[in-house]
Amino acid sequence: MFVGIDAGTSLVKAAAFDRAGRELAVEARPVGLELRGGAVEQDAEEVYGAVVAVLGALTARVPEPVELAGLTGQGDGVWLVDAAGRPVRPAISWMDGRAHELVDQWLADGTVEAVFRRTGSAMFPGCPGPLLAWLDRHEPKALDAAAAAVACKDLVFQRLTGAGRAVTDVSDASMPFLDPRTRSYDNGVVELLGLTHRRGLLPGIGDPIATGAASGAGLPAGTPLANGPYDLPACALGAGVTAPGDGLLIVGTCLASLVATTALDLGGEPAGLYISTDRPGHWLRAMPAMVGTAALDWVLRLTGAGHRDLDDLLGASPPGAHGVRVLPYFAPSGERAPFVEPGLRAELLGVSLESAPADLVRATCEGIGYAARHCLEAAGLTGSLAVCGGGTRSPAWTGLLADVLGRPLRVVEGEVGARGAVLAAAGRYGVPLDTAAWTGPARVIEPDPGRAASYAKRYEEHLELLAAARRRAARC
């Protein structure tokens, strides 16, 4: 069997597949997030322990020999480790907002734009550049104690293999220090961020991804293991999004829009990033909006409902939600795609005593759909669109997204990130797999022409409301 490991933000999963790509079993463990005053941290040992636990449970359930394993996980943030891959402080999540004042300063003085023109990465508070600069100012002893500043999956890879040094892949290195043309770190960007004296913390890059043998923790000793890509490009691989112009929408905690491209355009408004892939000259133009299902989770809790109620709630409110609108920018660090605005916050509009909980839920789902359309248009979508993630478990919401986006959706089910991690590992080790069979959609959802036309008009109104909200955020 083939094993894919996905160390996500709130859930760690391991999935087993047979050679034809059929999903045999999945094991999952939740992991915690600590939120306080804009800071979002995780216990790295808890995350690693969850990886070992799900692997042990999975291999016990499916006692077939493990031919190959691939690893993926959440990107961005900063996971400071010592030479053995053990954390020297709690991991800082990609959702963290403590560096927002620094990003505001860099937006004002042109640093954000200068970095984007060099690397195609528009920094946001939760990415490694601002976080390392913040730590250098406020917790220099933590950086002094660290051997490397890695991403989540890199810590896991080092521990699972017993590797003597930290290593990452070209996808996780893409934000914000990687030159996408040379596929190596741009020391000019390191200097722009005032981090030249911390340059040694950047891990080595296994181009395209690093490989090693498992040392026996969770996986049988000697199992070939590949590190990377991180969860967004891994999902693109798992959904079969590799042809230029084709796109993927991940409706997860993060609302991520990805479009495959062979064109590198470092002009325009700095936003999103270009993710380097396993093929030189091929990138994913990524617009990962900060909040996807997390916004819906908040609204469902507010209304006393749960995910099981979502389809019924969407059916109880018509398109347009009786005039209720939601600008779904709930992240404490603002927004990063398709624009960078650390001060932007969510807004609920058109609510009255006549509004029902169903209206608020539908308006939130519609608002997330508008944000996705904005990101996909900015990323240059011209081809087919695949969709995956927890949000697609709701047939009503998936149909709503097809209507808002005005295009057919190729729904890819199961553990798409873990599937992509296996395909990346197979490519690195030269194991032939039928990619088409591994990445075929479960179904295709067509938009309703009438509702799509109505939503197209409301989308233009959404952009007007968003422009006004951004002006207010910029003044604060």
UniProtKB/TrEMBL annotation:
Keyword vocabulary terms for this entry: Carbohydrate metabolism, Kinase, Transferase, Xylose metabolism
Pfam families the UniProt entry points to: FGGY_C, FGGY_N
Signal peptide (residue range): none
Residues in Carbohydrate kinase FGGY N-terminal domain copies: 1-238
Annotated ranges, domain Carbohydrate kinase FGGY C-terminal: 273-426
Domain of life, source organism: Bacteria
SUPFAM superfamilies on file: Actin-like ATPase domain
Gene3D superfamilies in UniProt: 3.30.420.40
Annotated GO MF terms: kinase activity
Keyword Transcription regulation: no
Similarity section: Belongs to the FGGY kinase family.
Protein's UniProt name: Carbohydrate kinase
Species in which this protein is naturally found: Streptomyces tricolor
